[in-house]
Amino acid sequence: MGRAGHQHQSYCQQLLLGCDDPIFEGPLFRAKDGGPTKKMRDLESPNSEDAVTWSVFRLLEHHFADHTWLPELLALAGCESAVSGIPRVTFWEKGYPPRSRLLWLLNHVDDPRVTKSPGARKDPDRLELVRQNLEEYRRRVGDGLIRGRNKWVLEGPTEFDAIIRSEGPLVAVEAKLYCDVATYVRWDTGRDQIARVVDAGLEMAGDGEFAFLLITDRRRHTPPKEYERLLKEYRASGLYSLAPDGLGWLTWGEIYDWLEGRRARCSIEQKDWIERLRTFIAQRALLEV
To answer: Are residues 164 and 227 in the same domain?
Structure first.
């Protein structure tokens, strides 16, 4: 499909730029029969987190590469990391939990966190299968056989909203528009979304540095969002091997304000993009007030 054809697609109305990227014709967004996937239908919504994430980071990567946007935004978010080089952004990559996490689930199949989970309620036979084959499943996890649709793996991959790579930490972005983070996962009522993303991000980073970046509509809500409490707790107590300054938090409006503050150093084209971004986020009530 040519560029002109893309512009008439309904999802294009929700993107600031880049709607002709091949990713939108790939399996994430197009089913085998050519129809839209759930992810594509969500992208077509004015409340799409994916649309805002794509638009903001695609804009930074492609039109503000001559600005030190990643280290400055990480510092603004409260992350202290040495970053250099030109950042590269990928969207909607999958990350897998570490073996230690899968073993914890196998070793706690009778814990109420597991037995009262949504997965246990909806698929009790699967939990019973795990109980009957614990030793074999522990061995499989130990051998690294953790990918694919294995019924004995009680936590599958997570989809990162964005991954940012540079000469510095691998940065996993969890983007929220108006909704909260999940406070449980399918097989564990005590596993929140922040912990899951950090766990998978640390696994992806391996021996390299890692930082987590949460981006939301605003910092305070009435009543408070769960992520307001969780970020405060995790920064105070630490999360896995991640130091408190490895947990960053920004709002979409703060990202715009950062760009606006650099206007004097921008080209005419970049100033035009700043105005377009202002309109884009103002339409979604994301400007700081």
So the answer is: yes
